[in-house]
Every structure is written in structure tokens, then in C-alpha cells.
Design a protein that fits this description.
PH-domain like; four-stranded mixed sheet; three-stranded antiparallel sheet; 3 helices; 7 strands; elongated; membrane; transmembrane; YcxB-like protein domain-containing protein; transmembrane helix
Length: 135
């Protein structure tokens, strides 16, 4: 059974949000050093900052199945199908026949096959979605 990697975004929820902020600080220090206001050996910090600011975007490439969310939207990738969803556009969520079905307010639906996904992860996904989607 495949697992889903769950990540809730926010400073209070995990420290991964601080990594891009640290990258921005390094970038500012590197630019200041490049302009000559501080020692030029620190200008390499601007290049190092690229790794820190791009880390959250690259991180999702390492997981086959993930669900990343905050209070307004989510990114979901399950069994090679990926989509960005806004919770205010979703009217209801259904789990049936190993499928996640998200019904949008414009009467369209998004289907995600949950075949070979761990049952605990499906239940956790259902709890999160039902808590965040307001009818």
C-alpha cells in the first residue's frame, strides 16, 4: 500500500515554512555584499539562497503521493494525478469505490483514484477535507 505525505503549511505547524524565509535573508545579505557594503566573500550567500527558497517547491517532486494544505487551498497528488484546489470552490467531498470525488460549485467534479493507497491515509485525507470544506 502506498502512503500519502501530509504537510500543513504555516509557521506554527511546521518549520519548513521558515526555510524560504531563511533563504530570503541570505539573499538580502548576499546582495548587500555584492554591492560592496559588507565583505565581498559573503556575496556567495545570494547563490546559496536559491537552494533555500526553492526547497519547498522541489520537495514535492520526491513524493509520489502528497497532500499539502493551508486554510484556503491545497495541492493534492494521488496516483500520478495532481491538482491545486481552492476550498471555497468545492461544495462537497465524497469517498466511494476507491475514488475521491470533489464536487465544485460550478457543477464540475474532480476525481482522484485512491487505488493502492493506505486506508489510514484515506481516512486522514477525508477528515482534513471535511473539516476544511464548508458547505
Amino acid at each position: 500500500m502506498k502512503r500519502i505525505k501530509f504537510t500543513e503549511l504555516g509557521f506554527k505547524k511546521n518549520l519548513n515554512t521558515l526555510i524560504p524565509v531563511f533563504g530570503l535573508v541570505l539573499f538580502i545579505l548576499g546582495i548587500i555584499a555584492f554591492l560592496g557594503y559588507i565583505d565581498e566573500k559573503y556575496s556567495a550567500l545570494a547563490y546559496l539562497s536559491i537552494l533555500f527558497t526553492s526547497f519547498p517547491q522541489m520537495r514535492t517532486n520526491f513524493y509520489k503521493n502528497y497532500f499539502i494544505w493551508n486554510k484556503s487551498d491545497a495541492q493534492i497528488k494521488v496516483n500520478s494525478k495532481a491538482k491545486q484546489i481552492l476550498f471555497k470552490e468545492i461544495s462537497s467531498v465524497q469517498f466511494e469505490n476507491n475514488n475521491l470525488i470533489l464536487l465544485k460549485k460550478d457543477n464540475t467534479q474532480l476525481d482522484f483514484p485512491l487505488k493502492n493507497i493506505n486506508l489510514e491515509d484515506i481516512k486522514k485525507l477525508e477528515e482534513i477535507l471535511k473539516a476544511l470544506i464548508k458547505n
